[in-house]
Amino acid sequence: MDVVKSGPADTAGMKKNDIVIAYRGKEIVDTSTLRNDVAETPIGTEAKITILHNEKKEELTVKIGSLDASTKILAAQSRIIWEWR
Questions:
Q1: SS3 sequence, the chain?
Q2: How many domains does the chain have?
Q3: What pLDDT was estimated at residue 44?
Q4: Which of 20, 21, 39, 85 is 20 to 30 Å from 55 at the Cα level?
Q5: Residue 1: predicted pLDDT
Q6: CB-based contacts of 71, cutoff 8 Å, min separation 6
Q7: What angle do CA 81, 60, 72 make, to 5 degrees?
Q8: Which pairing describes strands 19-23 and 46-53: parallel, antiparallel, or unpaired?
Q9: Is 1 within a domain?
Q10: 75 inside domain
């Protein structure tokens, strides 16, 4: 999994290539399930997630953000990369 710098996952402590195996106590079997479960969670909610990080289970708490805010973060990061080139 990629993690957006300064996004909710990054703030919670997730790292690139971490795998979410449970969200709010529910097993995650595919990315669609995770995406849909997160989309149904109100913005601002703190949700417990279980991840595999370097083959070890870890519990994190992530604060659900808005898609709009994440899009702005990604856009700003892309602009910085393009301006640097």
A1: CCCCCCCHHHHHCCCCCCEEEEECCEECCCHHHHHHHHHCCCCCCEEEEEEEECCEEEEEEEECCCHHHHHHHHHHHHHHHHHHC
A2: 1
A3: 93
A4: 39
A5: 60
A6: none
A7: 30
A8: antiparallel
A9: no
A10: yes
